[in-house]
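Hi Y.,

Following your request, here is the sequence exactly as I used it, all 118 residues.
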Amino acid sequence: MVINIDKKQLILFAIGLILITVIVSILASRVDTSVSSVDPYQQKIDSLNIELKNIRNRQDILSSQIRRYKDSVNISNARIDSLGKELTSTQIYYGKKIKDLSGYSSAELYKFLTERYK
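Below is the corresponding structure, written out as tokens. Let me know if you'd prefer a different format.
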């Protein structure tokens, strides 16, 4: 089987091939241009997302520190309340004892003072 191609068909084929090549290259450059115009915005968005992630991490760290400080304050407040109650009971106890001092003998007074100021 022999294929006969004349000059006219060969020229039309070549022109069609050139047109297809030109159209494909134009479309490819248009796609590159649109991608490159989005690129700076995408880079800014990525940069802002990274910055936002860093800020959230710092916020988590600070929130954790605040929780620890609140726990410490609560523990200190509980200790202060406990010491306040202990001080009040001690004041009441020794207040009664001091009122009764006038009726103590010298031995009882000596015993009271040695126990009181150990």
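The chain is about 90% helix and 0% strand.

Thanks again,
Q.
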